[in-house]
Amino acid sequence: MTNNIFDELTNRYDAWFEKHEFAYLTEVEVLRKLIPDNGRGLEVGVGTGKFAQALGIKEGADISEKMLELASGRGVVTTRAAAEALPYDKESFDYVLMMMAMCFVNDPAKSLTEASRILKPGGALIAGIIDKNSAMGREYQIKDSPFYKSATFFSPEELLSLLSSSGFGNFSIVQSLFGSYKDLNQIDRIESGYGRGGFIAVKATKK
Labelling 203: which of 22, 36, 116, 118 has CA 20 to 30 A away? Predict the structure, then answer.
């Protein structure tokens, strides 16, 4: 995961969630449909802790020190670590959230293998991505954002293939953000499946 830009522009990154409040709240509600109601959870790529705080996830890992400072202030127990090398015991979590983290990791397959390692048998991985084939995804790929210049975007099919190869199955998929996230003045509708929404989340079970 690249972290320099996230350390340098931490406050700018965090301000996006205030500026686009209903896009953020929509993504939270999509994830909430897939996050287990109880158990020990970890967000990998926790960033400033906005999603972990909203979803009641107590622990988070990231490599950006500045972002972890904000996440700690939001009540998250933080660990500085890359997704490819998590300093947690085998089979110690009931679920792992990777909200947009797949876009920024250096080795997506290794990151998923690590997530599988720390998950209990039957544990859940929840991954949120911007569908690269959606209008929103195409916009993100051409926009001049310092955060997304180095990002790798995925299609739902590519994400599902990676998850399958990493020992996950039993997929549940939810989508939202069907128009411009900039124009939202309320939480967007949420549907199952993919192919229509710009944001999708997949829940996958460790086999």
Answer: 22
